Amino acid sequence: MHILVVDDDPLVGEMTLAMLEEAGHQVQLAEHGLDALERLSEDASIELVVSDLHMPLLNGLELFQELRERGLQQPFVLLTGDDPAPLLAREPGLSACLAKDAALEQRLSELLAQF
Fold this sequence. Notes:
Residues 2-115 form the Response regulatory domain. By secondary structure, the chain is of the alpha/beta class.
């Protein structure tokens, strides 16, 4: 699967990228929401977006909303250090909202197996 990871923290972004590549996925890394919008408009082969919530310029939720307004329907997974339940309730179109914790790798792998 071709995945776009969006995270303004280089260490977290690289760790997520490495985890997904190790699982056999083709992965690109975008530094922030505006970078992600540009990549998505240029590369129609991206099948999934995995984005951090808290980022400058355009946060993960704003990125999700902008993609939907542009008619882009790739599954969208939001990663957060906050409680994910309220975000899912507020944005029912999200594919998933996962907490950044020790179980993230396992939950993300299980989720990707569903796509």
